[in-house]
Design goal:
It contains 25 helices and 16 strands. With about 750 residues, it is an alpha+beta fold. The protein has two domains: about 30-250, no CATH class; about 285-590 and about 630-754, no CATH class. Strands 1-2-6-3 form a four-stranded antiparallel β-sheet, with helices on both faces. A four-stranded antiparallel β-sheet has the order 7-8-12-9, with helices on both faces. A two-stranded antiparallel sheet has the order 4-5. A hairpin with a 6-residue loop joins strand 10 and strand 11 (about 495-500). The protein starts with 15 loop residues before the first helix and ends with a helix. The relative contact order is 0.13.
């Protein structure tokens, strides 16, 4: 088979393409996952739509039916309330070419998980009755397929049934607000129009943009009938437009569709997902081996509680890493224009993360832990999570102190842990540390904040104590919860768990609660053996922060410990990109293993999960083949974004250029010569002292020789020998909190920082 390979890049020929690559890898990113480009078009529709009278603005025709619907409308309003920013003072240096601009706009919407996107010119009669036209010549129309109703025996059916429209409206409305923010960051006018807060005829624009056909006083989409929600962004940003669909487009689900024509997601794959129970999600996590304990050693009684003050992004914020890291921490999330529309809404959700539960609610209705768990998983998937697991929260998973230096109470028993996929295709087009990397993170953080916020509020209304734990404001360490909830194993990357289906390209969000739940067990898909043999992430790390050596014991748990300080400094001060996800990009497990994925990758994934006895034979071949195929290289077909840097509120060509890394296959490093700095609990900063506490890197490097091996730790713990001093967290100052409680944040708006 390998003899049929034309070249070890993205171009394969003959039979090998069926095994090593799919047509999706050559599908232009802006086309999206549905084969809209194949549908018949009819320009006569433009004339018909021009004769239709104006209509009132889109709004709900009924009150919210149930608590979930009401919460979702509230979260949509958060986006609406944060949509009023003015365009940047100066126009971004983007091409005049409407086609290239369209690629960026549609790419952004696909990246944010809109189902379909179309663009049309903005006719005068598309402004709603009573609305004042904004002088915008173009309309970007976004649609989202509505979710599925849970099964009859699932308690979530009662919550979700009346709220299916609101769930789709909230998600697609939020995406529209983010897109408008992106366009305004480029220096152009843009306005988001969403359900209940818009001034355009969204149905008319959906027809003109080639996303729907009028039928029986309503709209029909060729792929999801009438089950979709619409949002619109109007703008003066000149874009290449689409044409209206012909009536024959409604016969789109033919044989070619079922086999994934043009590299689009196949009808077979969509049917597979829809045939699964709603609480199982898209990925067959139920097939992965379950174990009683995580596959890496955790000495539960020895793991110290640490403070948020000890996390290196917080240390950078406080000045512990020096002036440059502190300065860059302040603008970290604003370095690239795609995040402009995300950050204000994400920050506004913080105030809704906690609250008082409804004391009048009848909690006896939810006495069945297994049923409750199915319900929350179904809800998480409706809201946009990719995988969900549940665990009990151990003591050490709670931070001891918050970012303001005050102690955190550990008052919830269970954690609902959700994974957000950082999206394979965009990562395919990136180097991992270029100008889209930070946006990949922030998009996942925003989606997670919305999902967890809605879920936590619903639980409180049902009578249960609950809090959403997000990247913006979390009281828990999410990594151990991911392990315990059975969503991943600890990897060589270090403080990152890998999932058997999406690898490392994930972010997590957590809801903590006292609702009775059934916990999942940890998983074992052989990752420890794989990571022990594969060194690709260490080889490709731009700052040598990933260990080339063996696992050690750090603060009571077994880990390939990375140099977190070095990693944080690089991510914050990366001058040729925004943040860094190079380890995620190049990991051999960063693959597509659905029914549309390459046969070899799907087979390897199946063997890795179900035939662990073969791992010693398969791992070296898999790692070699991964390099041979060029996996981890940049795929130009998937490069949709503009590489732009935001300085003083406006976009410019990146001052230092753009990281355009390729694989570094010849690089290796002697583990004995790798200089790593470790900061165990006893050298962490005083948790309630907010003043600068500079790191002592020299002392941290000397710590390496004092770390136990896992074997030594097991033996010591079994012999009841004393816990190492380095596991004892730095105590708080009895006179604290000390220093200012002002926390300049990467999640603040530009105006907040002025």
């Amino acid at each position: 088979m390998l003899g049929l390979i034309c070249t070890p890049t993205y171009n394969y020929c003959g039979v090998s393409a069926l095994f090593l690559q799919t047509r999706a890898q050559s599908r232009p990113y802006q086309w999206g996952s549905y084969p809209l480009e194949t549908l018949a078009r009819d320009d006569a529709i433009i004339e018909l739509e021009s004769k239709r009278p104006r209509v009132p603005p889109a709004g709900y025709q009924r009150a919210a039916a149930g608590p979930l619907a009401d919460i979702l409308r509230d979260y949509l309003n958060i986006f609406v309330d944060n949509s009023g920013a003015e365009p940047a003072e100066y126009k971004a240096p983007v091409p005049d070419d409407p086609h290239r601009r369209m690629i960026d706009v549609k790419g952004y919407c696909n990246f944010m998980n809109a189902s379909q996107i179309g663009i049309c010119r903005m006719p005068e009669n598309a402004w709603a009755e009573g609305a004042t036209p904004l002088g915008h010549s173009f309309a970007v129309v976004l649609v989202l397929e509505r979710g599925r109703l849970p099964e009859a025996a699932n308690p979530a059916r009662e919550w979700i049934g009346p709220a299916l429209q609101e769930a789709a409206d909230s998600r697609i409305g939020g995406i529209a607000v983010c897109l408008a923010g992106h366009i305004k960051q480029l220096g152009f006018m843009a306005s988001a129009h969403v359900m209940g807060a818009g001034s355009v005829d969204m149905d008319r624009l959906a027809v003109l943009a080639g996303l729907a056909v009028r039928r029986d006083q309503g709209l029909i989409n060729p792929y999801f009938d009438r089950d979709f929600s619409i949002a619109v962004v109007t703008t003066d940003y000149e874009l290449e437009t689409d044409r209206p669909l012909a009536s024959s487009a409604l016969r789109a689900k033919g044989l070619a569709y079922w086999f994934g024509q043009g590299g689009a997601t196949s009808g077979r794959e969509r049917q597979r997902r829809n045939s699964r129970a709603t609480h199982l999600g898209d990925y067959p996590m139920e097939t992965v081996k379950r174990v009683d304990r995580p596959t890496t050693l955790i000495l539960d009684d020895e793991v110290p509680q640490v403070s948020k003050r000890a996390t290196f992004f917080d240390r950078a914020l406080r000045g512990d890493l020096g002036e440059k890291s502190q300065r860059e921490r302040h603008r970290f999330s604003f370095k690239q224009p795609h995040t402009a529309g995300m950050m204000p809404s994400m920050r506004s959700m913080v105030g809704k993360q906690s609250g008082m539960e409804n004391k009048q609610a009848d909690t006896t209705l939810y006495a069945d832990p297994a049923a409750n768990s199915r319900a929350l998983k179904s809800l998480s998937y409706l809201l946009g999570a990719n995988m969900t697991g549940i665990c009990e929260i151990p003591r050490y998973a709670w931070y001891s102190h918050g970012a303001d230096g005050t102690p955190i109470s550990t008052n919830h028993r269970y954690a609902v842990v959700m994974l957000i996929d950082q999206e394979f295709d965009t990562m395919e087009g990136a180097s991992g540390d270029d100008w889209i990397s930070g946006s990949q993170s922030m998009r996942a953080y925003l989606r997670g904040a919305e999902i967890a916020g809605v879920m936590a509020e619903l639980l409180r209304q049902l009578g249960f104590a609950s809090r959403s734990q997000t990247n913006v404001d979390s009281e828990v360490l999410q990594l151990p919860l991911m392990l315990l909830a059975g969503l991943g194993e600890l990897s060589r990357i270090g403080e990152l768990a890998l999932n058997p289906f999406v690898g490392p390209r994930l972010k997590t969000v957590v809801v903590t609660t006292d609702m009775p739940l059934e916990a999942d067990k940890p998983i074992d898909f052989g990752l420890q053996s794989f990571c022990n043999s594969c060194l690709k992430c260490a080889r490709e790390c731009p700052c040598d922060a990933i260990s080339w050596g063996d696992k050690v014991m750090f603060n009571g748990y077994e880990i390939w410990k990375p140099d977190v300080e070095r990693c944080a400094r690089y991510r914050l001060t990366n001058a040729r990109g925004s943040a860094c996800g190079r380890c995620m990009k190049t990991c051999p497990l960063n693959k597509v293993v659905t029914s549309d994925g390459p046969i070899v990758q799907r087979l390897a994934s199946w063997c890795g999960i179900h035939l662990p006895i073969l791992k010693p034979l398969l791992i070296p071949v898999a790692v070699w083949l991964d390099d041979y195929m060029g996996n981890g290289r940049r795929n130009p077909v998937k490069k949709w974004w503009f590489d732009l840097e935001v300085i003083d509120g406006s976009c410019v060509i990146p001052v230092k250029g753009v990281n355009q890394r390729e694989l570094n296959v010849a690089y290796s490093l002697d583990p004995g010569k790798q200089k790593m700095a470790y900061y165990p609990a006893n050298v962490m900063p005083v948790p309630n002292d907010l003043r600068p506490q500079p790191v002592d890197r020299k002392a941290a490097m000397a710590t390496a020789k004092n770390l136990e091996t896992p074997a030594t730790a097991r033996k010591r713990a079994a012999s009841d020998h004393a816990v190492p001093e380095q596991y004892r967290a730095t105590p708080e100052n009895p006179h604290g909190p000390l220093g200012s409680d002002f926390k300049p944040s990467v999640y603040a708006t530009e105006n907040d920082k002025k």
